[in-house]
Amino acid sequence: MNVRRLRWAGTATLVAVVSGCTSIKLHEEEILSTEESTVMRPHCVIPLARNLRTVRHAQPLVGLFIGISNYGIAAGYSPTPAHTISAALFREPFYLTAAGDTQKNDLRLSSSLELDVNAELGRAAERTLRDIGGMARELMVPAGSAAGGKVRSGPWEYMRNARRTTRQGLIEELDRTLERAEAVAQSEGNVVFILYISAHGKLGADGQAYIVPSDAIEGDLGTWIDQRLVLDRMASFLYRSRLDGRQRKAVVVFDICRVPQENAAPRLSASVARLLPINAFVVESTSPGSYAWHWTMNADTQKKVEVLSESRFGLPFPPPRAKSGVIDERFASNMSIAPLASNCAISEYFEPQSKAPAASATGRGDAEPAYTMLVSDWLRETQDWIPAFARLIPEVKETGRAQDMHVFIVPPMQSIPLLKRVPQ
Amino acid sequence: MRAFGLLLLPLLIITVTLRAEQILVRKSDGTRIYVQVTGPLAEGRAATLARDINQYDAASKGDDVFAAVDDAALRQQLNALAKSLRDDAADQLDLAYRVASRTSAGMDDRLLAPGFDSMRQLSELVSRPPTRQYVRTQITTSIAGTVLWFMGHADFKNGSDAWLGYTLGLPMKIGAYQFRLTGPNGARPRCQRVVVMSDPMIATLTPINCP
Questions:
Q1: Which one of A423, B89, B112, B127 has the fewest CB atoms closer than 10 angstroms to its CB?
Q2: How far apart are CA A59 and CA B207, in angstroms?
Q3: Helix B2-21 crosses helix A3-20 at what angle (to 10 degrees)?
Q4: Could you tell me where the DSSP H helices lie in A138-287?
Q5: Residue A229 Cα, gap to closest chain B Cα (Å)
Q6: What are the two backbone dihedrals, phi and then psi, of residue B191, each rounded to the nearest 5 degrees?
Q7: Above 90 in pLDDT, residue A155?
Q8: Do residue A399 and residue B95 have CB atoms under 8 angstroms apart?
Q9: A141 contacts A189 by C-beta, under 8 angstroms
């Protein structure tokens, strides 16, 4: 045996072990109690369920709520739970007011979120998501494969019904949901389709606005999603009403930043006017060149931990002891202010103490019954709430860049009932 | 001995690799900014700005870059301005990262631009410092019918509203100032930061809406 080679191999092995594993800590702990208090949670967002107990859909609703949280390295963006949280929040009032599983299932959430619940960001996002109506059953620790076929071992959580947020996956999901909306229109005679997208956005070199999907490649327009493609799909769906007389309406919400160019692209109004018939509302949560700001929701937790056993080894020093006793933690998770504004608009509209709102001025002649929220009411109230949230974000004042939501309505304005209060 | 060296080498490589992935910049209040060199939040210009700031810090550490200036009062003023410009650059870098984490925008180059301006002005200040504390100024604006006001930039950041009226030709002490333009018909005031250091100081303001 070559002693010299053995010596080298032994040294190399020792180096590999030491450099790859300079500390080991094994411990077993028991959490004796946990107490949570929340701060910075807008009152009108939680509790939403209480205000909506006697509220239902005013007509059939089908929705697709997209939160693109995971991005590949080639996209040039960090993964962010904020977009999935935003989509879940935007869906929440419609989910809570759905009567039965069929209506709930027609409100689809599209996200391929991955959460490392060992990391503070993952724990905070998971905690926030579980608090949102309809989300507790959406999260899981996987036993099999998640969307995309990738599963990591360890404390990772995924969306139970995760759907790919790749370019192709999103287009297919949009088409599938529109097919479902069409089926509802055929069976019920009318339907309102709600599409919400929370994602990174970019202005392309062609001056058009794009959505950045999970598998986007930075600088390659062919891997992004042109917002006009989305509007084109909506138009094909809506135009069928001219042929068969069934009422199809749509609300499309782009909750997407469009930086860095200021005023380099017009708002979507030109595309909207050209592509969409009546019965459509298109919402941009922010202006070209401005930001879709994120709100930070904090939750403080105090837990009492007892360490039952502990073993520590490390080179040159062992790792620090595991914490025991009373431990205070603060979790912070971000979400777009547009869904917060929407939830507050709906929550306050249906507050039990509020007087019955007057019939909305539609210019169309027929007065709507009281306690019905029209789409126009919803969007107008949401618009009013956006600055209220933006004002409380410190960076808004520092940058001088507020957020103004814009609603395109293809004239004439339609009186479209959205939610209604029913007798108890 | 050889084995001991081999033992240390991987640790050294790991340490150097970790250090290369991010650059540490300190703000004036001691806050640390970790600028990503690799990864999704890595933005080449942010890393460049961070390196510029650190290069200046290294060059000025322990040495007075204005040591050749005889006038002690002028030297003090120059050092104060240099620190102000350096700190402004770091503040802008910090703001860019905070906005990136607060929005769906990623790193916005527009927020880094003022930081680069500050470092460029700092470089000019060090290479060609003014020779007196007070310089002549000719600060104008292309916007008709406006009145110019100013205050120290540090006071503005602290929320002061003690504006002073500016008249063309006013001698001003070298330093960083915030200018404010008020126009007719109740138009929204406009603001611009101006660094007074050349003699004469000639500038035409193109301000934006005040925050």
A1: A423
A2: 51
A3: 30
A4: 167-188, 227-239, 241-244, 269-275
A5: 21
A6: -130, 155
A7: no
A8: yes
A9: no
**What is the distance between the terminal CA atoms of chain B, rounded to a whole angstrom?**
63
Helix (H, G, I), strand (E, B) or coil at B117: helix
What is the distance between the alpha carbons of residues A62 and A17, in angstroms, rounded to a whole number? 56
Q: Which residues contact B68 (CB under 8 A, 6 or more apart)?
A: none
Per DSSP, the residues of A194-226 read EEEEEE-EEE-TTS-EEE--TT--TT-GGGSEE
Contact list, A255 vs chain B (CB under 8 Å): 104
Contact assessment for residue A126 and residue A139, using Cβ atoms and an 8 Å cutoff: yes
Q: Does A261 lie at the interface with B, CB-CB under 8 angstroms? A: no
pLDDT digits (tens, 9 = 90+) for A93-129: 999 999 988 899 899 988 878 777 777 778 788 888 8
Task: Say if residues A198 and B103 touch (Cβ distance below 8 Å).
Answer: no
Is A259 in the B-facing interface, judged by CB distances under 8 Å?
yes
- Taking the alpha carbons of B91, B94, B98, B99 in that order, is the dihedral positive or negative? positive
Bridge-based pairing of strands A61-67 and A107-110 is parallel
Full DSSP string of A354-406: SPPPPPP--SSSPPPPTTEEEHHHHHHHHHHHHHHHHTT-HHHHHHT-----E
Minimal C-alpha gap between A386 and chain B (Å): 14
| Amino acid letter for position B199 | D
DSSP for residue A93: H
Q: What CA–CA distance (Å, rounded) separates A161 from A159?
A: 6
Residues B55-87 pLDDT 10s: 999 988 877 889 888 899 999 999 999 999 999
> Rounded CA gap, B43 and B25, in Å?
15
- Cβ-Cβ contacts under 8 Å, B157 against chain A: none
Does the CB of A224 have a partner CB in chain B at under 8 Å? no
Total count of residues recorded for chain B = 211
Q: What's the CA angle centered on A353, arms A350 and A359, to 5 degrees?
A: 50
- Burial degree of A180 (CB within 10 A; 0-12, 13-18, 19+): middle
Please count the residues of chain A.
Answer: 424
Classify residue A163 as exposed, middle or buried by CB count within 10 Å of its CB (0-12, 13-18, 19+): buried
Are B109 and A202 in contact by the 8 Å Cβ rule? The answer is no
Whole-angstrom Cα distance, residue A78 to residue A205?
Answer: 22
Question: What ipTM does the predicted assembly reach?
Answer: 0.72
Are A395 and B99 within 8 A, CB to CB?
yes
B109 and A260 in contact by Cβ < 8 A?
A: yes
Q: What is the DSSP string of A333-365?
A: EEEEHHHHHHHHHHHHHT-TTSPPPPPP--SSS
Residue to mutate among A80, A255, A395, A396, with most B CBs inside 10 A, is: A395
**What is the pTM (predicted TM-score) of this model?**
0.78
**3-state class of B19 per DSSP?**
helix
- Tokens representing residue B29 in the block: 């209040």
Q: Which residues in A lie closer than 8 A to residue B11 (C-beta atoms)? A: 18-19, 22
Q: Which residues have a Cβ under 8 Å from the Cβ of A137 and sit 6 or more positions away? A: A160
Contact residues, chain B, for A399 at CB < 8 Å: 95, 99, 111, 211
E strand or H helix at B157, and its extent?
Answer: helix B153-157
How far is the alpha carbon of A345 from chain B, nearest alpha carbon, in Å? 22
How close B86 gets to chain A, by Cα (Å)? 18
pLDDT in tens, B116-169: 999 999 999 999 999 999 999 999 988 878 889 999 998 988 888 899 999 999
